[in-house]
Amino acid sequence: MMQMIPQKSLKREETKGRVLGNGTMTAAKTAWGFSLKHLIAAAALLFVWAVSLPVSAYNLADKVREFRLENGLKILVVERHASPTVSLYISHRVGASDETSGHTGIAHFLEHLRFKGTKTIGTRDYGQESRILREIRETGDALDREAMKGDAADKAKMQDLRKRLDSLQEEAATWSIPGEIDRLYTEHGGGDLNAFTSQDMTTYHVSLPANKIELWARIEADRMANPVFREFYSERDVVLEERKQRVASDPRGKLMEQFLAAAFLAHPYRRPILGWPSDMRFFDMEAIRDFFNTYYIPGNTVITVVGDVTPNTVVEIIRRYFGPFPSRAIPERRITEEPPQSGERRTEVVFDAAPRIIIGYHKPTLPSFDDCVFDVIDTILSGGRTSRLFKSLVTEKGIAAAVSTANGYPGARYPNLFVIFAEPVSPHTTADLEAAIYEEVDRLKREPVEPQELEKAKNQLRADLLRNLATNSGLAGMLSYYETVAGDWRYISTFLDLVEKVSPEDIMRAADTYLTQENRTVATLVKDK
How far is CA 427 from CA 251, 391, 482, in A? Predict the structure, then answer.
């Protein structure tokens, strides 16, 4: 279920990895009778209309209705009647950065488990099933305790416990109904059902016919009130296998993991979202439930609704189902601050794969003006085939097979990184590529960006933002993201004003301040000989 959001971005979601809820329906017609072709055409017309207007004409402040329930739950609603559909996002301000040592990967694993159903969804008889689930937990805990002994573990005892656990899981399967949440949504016309976990947040989203909002509220309130962590141990094996595929067997994932571990010495951004293997092998249900009870609370939750709705009506539905949740104190965030970097850090990964390089620089996060300056730098360096890095390294010198940049990596709640990714073309090396990249970085420091190039970057940022606002899911995703991570969805409205203020002198100053040798981390993948 995981869809990672590797960095804060208001642009180029198709290349930067931001997840803004792209539809996944492939049928000729949607469940509510409109052809997918017509919906796409409507979205395209809306986008053309939006980008043809002055920025001030598309004022979100006039469109977003904001509500807060008595228990602290935040609701954002945008009324759009272009089609009888609605996109719904539930975001919790909790991610991998909120985990503690020894429990890395819990946020992502919890996301998986929340699709396993509730006391009423996904079960044939919860009374019978709950008895077996208790035995599964006791047996699984006993097996883990023995396995933690390492070489001193009683192998025969472990074998017996494993057989017992397998037998209990088979029995539990006779009482459960797998995929029940997905089935309920699909049968009622739902699409785009998914979730993602990042360093900063966890989000669950779906798009539905507008007359199915109450069904959504019943399902999601039940998932928040009565989750049942079915298939706990088999799902634990699933996320371990996911880690093997994304990291152990993937050169990009392996290099990125080592890069972040080198770039951050103290801050939890150094930890992988999937978790460290030694923690993942011993996920325990008590820790998962404590994490859930701590962070999945009304005051730490944002619900965003965009589509064919009446704000007051949809809020009353949400109040009816989510209002009874008791108000609880939001946990204090005590995150270790990353100390200033005082010298270049380098790390190397040996792997049987094509060489590649990652270069990262520490920088502030939003709402710092310098974060916005780096959005502009990001676009200047890698915003398309005419961008500086692509033109220089790929087109003219022919030394790079691929090159891109990302602002706000790996999260945006805390100070983060500006990152450059590149892959050399044989016989050129990562050293050749690194030197060429630094030439372009240094050029930002010594040469003011020409007005035409700067205006082009600003126009691209404006177009990308408005493109994301054109669809219900895109707007819901952005509102949800910035309300959760930045603490205020209004950052979307002020972003273009900030971009407009960025000057050539701001770019030179930011580059000179942050894009320095002592502030950078370099990770290189070396092909195993």
Answer: 20, 19, 44
The counts of H helices and E strands in the chain are: 19, 11
Query: Could you tell me if 134 and 146 are in contact, meaning their C-beta atoms sit under 8 angstroms apart?
Result: no
pLDDT by residue (tens digit) across 45-98? Answer: 444 444 444 443 357 888 999 999 999 999 999 999 999 999 999 999 999 999
How much is the pTM? 0.88
pLDDT one-digit tens code per residue, 259-288: 999 999 999 999 999 999 999 999 999 999
Distance of CA 383 to the CA centre of its chain: 21
What φ, ψ does residue 178 adopt, rounded to 5°? Answer: -65, 145
Q: What is the C-alpha to C-alpha distance for residues 202 and 16, in angstroms, rounded to an integer?
A: 18
What is the DSSP pairing of strand 345-351 with strand 520-527?
parallel
pLDDT: which is higher, 316 or 2: 316
Q: Taking the mean position of all CA atoms in its chain, how far away is CA 441?
A: 28
Rounded-to-integer distance, Cα 205 and Cα 321, Å: 17
What is the distance between the alpha carbons of residues 289 and 461, in angstroms, rounded to a whole number?
Answer: 41
CA distance 344 to 333: 29
Segments in 28-154 forming alpha helices (H): 36-52, 106-113, 126-147
C-alpha separations of 124 from 142, 234, 487 in Å = 28, 20, 41
